[in-house]
Design goal:
7-stranded mixed sheet; Maf protein; 6 helices; 7 strands
Length: 190
């Protein structure tokens, strides 16, 4: 029997997405430096690769899957909010306009030197929101631990009238890239 792949992520959303497609996996939450500069597509790939390599060091010979997601709005990279005011700042940037969500996916098929990384981009339209609506959303607690301070699959879904691209990318793991990179690495999903 082949050992399940290692998902280098503590994200419950990523766990749920992988379960949704029937993938058998174990979790290793890699603790890596998540600071990087550059274009959003490059940053998410770099961070996903750091997580994958940290997991490979712990689980040599195993297939590793890692991902990283960020929100890019008005020329700013939005990670996870530090506190309620940071979440409000992010929501003010997002409300009433388009922004982009980038996710990087990295797969290492169990051998050092063979690394497959790609990124995906989805454009998201946010409805205009009042300060009262944003404050109520922040008070719900949902924005915390989420890039850009929102979860499209949760309460914030009501704020998104349109998106262009992969909805699973906005949640944090573009499943089409997972399938493609696992296939390149010799892992078939179906």
């Amino acid at each position: 029997m082949v050992a399940p792949l290692i998902l280098a992520s503590a994200s419950p959303r990523r766990h749920e997405l992988l379960r949704q497609i029937g993938l058998d996996f174990e979790v290793y939450a890699a603790d890596v430096d998540e600071h990087a500069a550059g274009a959003p597509a490059q940053v998410v790939c770099l961070l996903a690769e750091r997580k994958a390599k940290a997991a490979l060091a712990r689980y040599p010979g195993r297939v590793i899957l890692a991902a990283d997601t960020l929100v890019y709005a008005q020329g700013q990279t939005l990670g996870k909010p530090k506190d309620a005011e940071d979440a409000m700042r992010m929501l003010r940037l997002l409300q009433g306009g388009w922004h982009e969500v980038y996710s990087g996916v990295c797969v290492i098929p169990g051998k050092e030197g063979q690394t497959h990384c790609r990124s995906d981009r989805t454009r998201v339209l946010f409805s205009p929101l009042t300060d009262q609506e944003m404050r109520a959303y922040v008070d719900s607690g949902e924005p915390f631990g989420k890039a850009g301070a929102y979860a499209v699959q949760g309460l914030a879904g009501q704020f998104v009238p349109r998106l262009e691209g992969s909805s699973s990318n906005v949640i944090g793991l573009p499943l089409h890239l997972v399938r493609e990179l696992l296939a390149v690495s010799g892992v078939q999903l179906l």
